[in-house]
Amino acid sequence: MPDPVLPQSFLKKIILIITLLFGFGFSSNGQQFYVATSDLNLMRVTITPNGVLSEAVPSCASGQFFSIAVSGNKLYYNTLYGSLYQADLDNSGFPQARNCTLLPSYSTSSNALTIDKAGAIYFVNGTQLGVITPGSAKEIILGDMPYYSAGDLIFYKDQLYMASDQGIVKIPVNNPAAAEMYIPLPGKAIFGLTTVTDKGALKVYALAGGGSGTDLIELDMENRTVKGTIGSVPFVVYDAASNVESGQASIIEIDAITISRECSVLNKGHAEIVCKPHISQYTYTLNTGESNTTGVFGSLAEGVYHLTITADGGELPVETDFTVQAYPSQTPLLTVEKKNPVCDLTGQIKIDAGARNNEFNVIYNGVTFEMGHTFTGLTAGSYHYTVVTKAGCLVDEKDYALTQDVCPPIDILSVQFAPECDQFGKANVTVVTKDHPDTYTYTLDGVTNATGYFSSVLPGTYNLIITSSGGDKKETMVVVPDFRIVNKPQLVYIIKNAVCTALGQIRFKAAGDIKGAARIKHNGDLYELDEVIRNLLPGVNHFTVLDAKGCILDELDIEILQDSCEPVSFPNTFTPNGDGINDVFRPNQNSNPVYYQLYIYNRQGQQLFRSASVYNGWDGLFNGKAVPAGVYFLVAKYTMCDGKSYFLKSSLTLLK
């Protein structure tokens, strides 16, 4: 084993600490790889037939990458102070590193990292070789080597190699002390070592720093020689990594090809090709000439398709076939109800799938509606509707046309009149027109409405005006009948005037066509027809004739008179002497009892006289002879016109 010399890796660390710069690198497939620069930032390097290209890679840990390794789409990196992190590599479109996460259980403090096929991370710290196996709780030191690491590790054909300060060293992982110089590179500062894929084969490059740039030196690992410098990058590289640094060439692997119905195109197929994780950019090409980098193809007709997948990282192309089946129409049985616009009214369209309404929606003007929706406010023209599933996939497209229907003229069928029920002498008017789609405005006696019904209209002749929202207009004369005459019932009435203390009475009776008269209303009380209405005060009394519904047929003002009522009174003396003055004893002659009885007695109780008429009095005779002067007694019974009866006992004096 040769004596160790001062490793250039120490110089690299010293320079980084002094400058406080950080570098990192990303791995790539094939002719692409990632490097950590001397300022600890990330670049992606691509080897092309036209030269070496490089581009900055945004990341979640800029200025922190010191040593790097890649496995699949995972990036592992050490910071300048020995912390180990992992991040996700995203090479779709513009490359970038996301989701940087600290692995707190490990502290490698190394300037060289790589990863093998099993996912074990190897690192070098000075001359010590260590490993972190998947699932282990702590790093393991495998042993010391007789060489210092200059800055990188790779696997090639299951053998571990290291960039040392003297050249490329081959390391037996089970016996690091047996490491040997494999390809001497005297005078070269090899900080980076990477493996790439070129047309399916592995190539190894050593990255030799010098000045402000880095040369890419191709190595012949089989013959342990240097092939030559293929180009350079304009920055100093501190570490490099690629997706094939495990020594296993990257290949294109198809994980799944999913064929389904195209959602946005009628009766077409949709193919989605999913490959295993990779960081090269894949190009997917069909035999139809269609090509993309997504692996998604739409609007595919029924048939067999030949697929070719190529990669920009040097992987060998992959070819396969897939079949798109026939996709029959899913269109449900639709019924369409259309209503054309007419006059100033807009039209309607309703699209219905019956019992399958809950399976579909309808899109109109970019807005989604439930199947069975009625589209309103439509003018004449053509309307395009898209039928989709509830998931939004296209099922059918329909176009329906509406035409402008002719607006019919105003046609008055009748004008109907009826008496107002509770307003005597007034009528209600109903204008009946032929059915029409537009809106009519009716005007009668200064009143305007949209119903054609007018209330509380007095008898007379009026001008009826009807206008339509469609632009038509019609005028006609309307004669409102006088229902006070037309509906007047033929009745007679019998009056009994008020007399004495008795109030008046009246009774109505039919005398012909009573026009449905059923009751008489007076002072808020209702009476049946032919019923005696009593207790009428003298004077004018108001009576309302009603039909069975309580509607007014007639109104009458009838006067109840106060008949004369003179009570009976008697004088207390009379002189039957033949002088013609006060010769007869009788009551006042203007009295008008309906019943009358008068009895006269002498002191012995003998009845001398009897009369049943106020006009028949006592002349002072009894049995034809004059009775002597003196005091006599009378008894009177009488009833007045109000039915009130009286009984009177008194005395009278007969004078000679």
From TrEMBL:
A Pfam family this chain is assigned to: CHU_C
The lineage's top-level taxon is: Bacteria
Q: Which InterPro entries match?
A: T9SS_type_B
> Cross-referenced SUPFAM superfamilies, in alphabetical order?
YWTD domain (SSF63825)
| Name of the featured protein | Gliding motility-associated C-terminal domain-containing protein
